[in-house]
Amino acid sequence: MFRAGIRFFAAAVLGAATSIAAAAGYPDRPITMITPFPAGGATDGLARILAERMGRALRQSIVVENRAGAATTIGASHVARATPDGYTILLATNSTLVTNRFLFKKLPYDPDAFAPIGMIGIGPMVLLTAKKDHFKTLADVVQAAKAKPGALTIASFGTGTSSHLAAEYFQKAAGIKLLHVPYKGSAQAMPQLISGEVDLFFDMVSTGMPQVDSGKVGVLAITSKQRMSSLPKLPTMSESGYPGFEILAWFTLVAPPGTPEARTRVLDNALKVALADETVRKRMLAMGIEPSDGTAQTLLKQIKQEIPVIQSLVQRANIPVQ
């Protein structure tokens, strides 16, 4: 299945880039960008930043629509069934295009069949903790978890998401057992962490750190290999006792299977314009997301590199297939 997908993606990215105006009158009406997470989270925020700037480049509005749930499969399957005319696109994540293929016996969409538009960006998460637990370090968490296996709870964006994989990776590396509590996104999980209903949560920097700064939750580490320049005092998971620990979330744009290449090129060029915009770049970096080059080639490379890594992680962590 993956080899077929590689052939499809490779064919879709051949040829020189065309101008935004090249697709004979396209777009002549608003475009809908589906985001598979609820409003208020990092993915939703990123979608709205891109929709505004891409819309200006296209001289046409892009409307963001949230279709959350089931580890992004609800939004993804909606786009997979949409008319392939370039007027419905998906802000997909690594969960959508890589992880879900290893967690579901039968997906309601083919992750290799989407028409690629371009890679948006990539970023780490931060491990947050409820204030009631008074955890100051990862060692505190591990000690508490080993004292009462399965008693501590850890929230995620949903089963199979980067947040969930980070939780599974941490448990495996630390030799502990936590109780996974999946939500439909950060916007639903965060209030539960703030109230103390859950103990831990791997969240994106953009939605997690404002709650840390306001004193509502604590933060223990970041999931990148190096510290972030904007968070120089926050240690990495590797520095905190788990060498090699790295789980990143990445974001991309794809279109329904069969979308004409002439139209995905128009969208790709608009994405490149957005990612080259200094204001957009600053806003993304403030969210903890490193802007990519906006190309389908980079997306293809990311998928190819990540498939064996995620497959191995899912197998080692014994994450059950649904």
Automatic annotation (TrEMBL):
<comment type="similarity">
    <text>Belongs to the UPF0065 (bug) family.</text>
</comment>
<feature type="signal peptide">
    <location>
        <begin position="1"/>
        <end position="23"/>
    </location>
</feature>
<dbReference type="InterPro" id="IPR042100">
    <property type="entry name" value="Bug_dom1"/>
</dbReference>
<protein>
    <submittedName>
        <fullName>MFS transporter</fullName>
    </submittedName>
</protein>
<dbReference type="Pfam" id="PF03401">
    <property type="entry name" value="TctC"/>
</dbReference>
<keyword id="KW-0732">Signal</keyword>
<dbReference type="InterPro" id="IPR005064">
    <property type="entry name" value="BUG"/>
</dbReference>
